[in-house]
Hints:
single chain; alpha+beta; Alpha-Beta Plaits; 6-stranded antiparallel β-sheet
Amino acid sequence: MTHRYVYGVMNDDPVEFETDAVGGADRVYTVSHRRLNAVVSDIDTTDPEETDEDAQRHDDVLREIMNRDGGRTIVPMQFGMAFENDRALKNVLRGARPAFRRAINDIEGREELGLKIVREEDAEVDTDALEEAVADELESIAAQSVPNDLFSDRLVLNRSYLVDRDEREAFDEAIADLEDEYDDLMFRYTGPFAPYSFVDVKIGAQQ
């Protein structure tokens, strides 16, 4: 028996395409409830193991959706959401429909970008001044931003930004200006990603 592995939920037109998907699947398609479309593939378990390869495939499918038709909006699910069948999945979509609609409105036409700033081993950095300079450059362009963990003592800033696709060029230029100004720091600018950091939709236990 095959189950439904969920990558994310959108309210765009249904999709179907061939790709390397989670759990060895080779096709991605949509399961619909009203105007919501869950992007899924078939899988033989409701408890998939998160290997590096499958985590990458999960992200690649989301990126493929985001890049289709000039840019689509999808509420991403964390790795591992799998349901017994279409009915179980549609029941969840029905119950979480208001939350999904709100999340889609919040991220419509936007993507997540990440910035990490790393100091050299013995460098002294005025963290408050740096954070203020970064905020001055980026916060007026981004729709939202959130801080992430400083998981290393050399990591002086780690933030995710939700940016309109139309503002991407301006955001790129602002990052470049910061790099020029702080050429003694290492800037790690990543993305675009599905906006994981800016949605918080709980779709219940796997069924």
